[in-house]
Design a protein that fits this description.
Radius of gyration: 21 Å
Strand content: 15-25%
Number of strands: 4
Largest sheet: 4 strands, antiparallel
Structural class: alpha+beta
Helix content: 25-40%
């Protein structure tokens, strides 16, 4: 009985916290949205422009004081960029909460005004799981410890905007493999 008196408050707090987070996520303004990003054939900007977009995404929306997190169940909003290959065609998606859409749109359109954001149907719902289904997915894992930096576009000298015939885009290999 002694261990139950010690463990019961922490178990109760665990379930209470999950309950209030779930209630927070069920609010009307927390509705998720999936947008397809239609990219023009030619983009003349360096990867620095996309770095600026991601920097703008990481401005905190200011919803995480201890009281808001522990008692109201508020969590830091998240979003994801996704790539899908369907029958050799590459599609780019942005998943986010609907209330974050104005911030994300302004960040994208500030650097890439020629982009199109189109509401999309969730492509993952088209599939039902079967062990015999011919799908493939991967995770990239670091070979070295986290302290070893990844190669960035500076390592490929893409910040200089060289002539098109001298550009080496490291992302093209991944996209060609998906196509």
């Amino acid at each position: 009985p002694l261990w139950l008196a010690i463990k019961l408050p922490s178990i109760g707090w665990y379930y209470w916290h999950h309950y209030i987070v779930h209630q927070f996520l069920e609010l009307p303004n927390q509705e998720p949205i999936l947008l397809e990003i239609k990219i023009p054939k030619i983009i003349s900007k360096s990867p620095r422009a996309m770095e600026e977009v991601f920097n703008m995404f990481h401005i905190s929306p200011g919803t995480t004081t201890k009281f808001q997190t522990l008692w109201k169940g508020q969590i830091i909003p998240w979003f994801s960029f996704e790539i899908e290959s369907r029958e050799g065609e590459i599609h780019f998606y942005l998943w986010a909460w609907k209330r974050l859409l104005p911030r994300l749109e302004s960040a994208l359109f500030s650097q890439y005004p020629e982009l199109e954001l189109v509401p999309a149907v969730d492509y993952s719902k088209k599939f039902s799981y079967s062990p015999n289904l011919a799908t493939w997915g991967t995770d990239y894992r670091l070979k070295e410890p986290d302290e070893i930096p990844l190669k960035t576009y500076y390592d490929f000298e893409l910040e200089k905007d060289p002539k098109i015939e001298f550009k080496v885009d490291p992302f093209v290999g991944i996209l060609e493999g998906m196509a």
